[in-house]
């Protein structure tokens, strides 16, 4: 499992959004069929904005 945390002094500046957009573009270009993640309550709105949807389990996933 891999986690991502942003130092509080640098939050709300678009860093996570830029990283995730880059990753999702790379996944799409390389034929990745699905991305699963577990989001904190604070991070979930960002992932939903990027196209992740909630499953019955506490996992979100992205499918191009």
The gist of it:
It contains two helices and three strands.
Describe this protein's structure:
The protein is of the alpha+beta class. Helices cover 33% and strands 12% of the residues. Strands 1-3-2 form a three-stranded antiparallel sheet, with no helix packed on it. The protein is globular, with a radius of gyration of 12 Å. The mean pLDDT is 88.
Instruction: Return the average pLDDT rounded to an integer.
Output: 88
Q: Considering DSSP H and I runs of 4 or more, what fraction of the residues is helical?
A: 25-40%
Spatial extent as radius of gyration: 12 Å
What are the secondary-structure elements, in order, as H or E?
A: HEHEE
Helix vs. strand class? alpha+beta
The stretches of 5 or more residues where confidence is low (pLDDT under 50) are none
Strand order of the biggest β-sheet? 1-3-2
Shape: globular
Q: Characteristics of this structure?
A:
64 residues; 12% strand; 3 strands; alpha+beta
Protein topology:
Layout: H1 15-29, E1 35-37, H2 44-49, E2 53-54, E3 60-62
Antiparallel strand pairs: 1-3, 2-3
């Amino acid at each position: 499992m891999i986690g991502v945390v942003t130092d509080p002094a640098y939050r709300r500046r678009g860093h996570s959004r830029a990283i995730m957009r880059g990753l999702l573009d790379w996944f799409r270009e390389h034929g990745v069929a699905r991305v699963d993640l577990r989001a904190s309550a604070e991070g979930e709105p960002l992932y939903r904005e990027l196209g992740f949807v909630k499953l019955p389990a506490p996992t979100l996933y992205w499918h191009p």
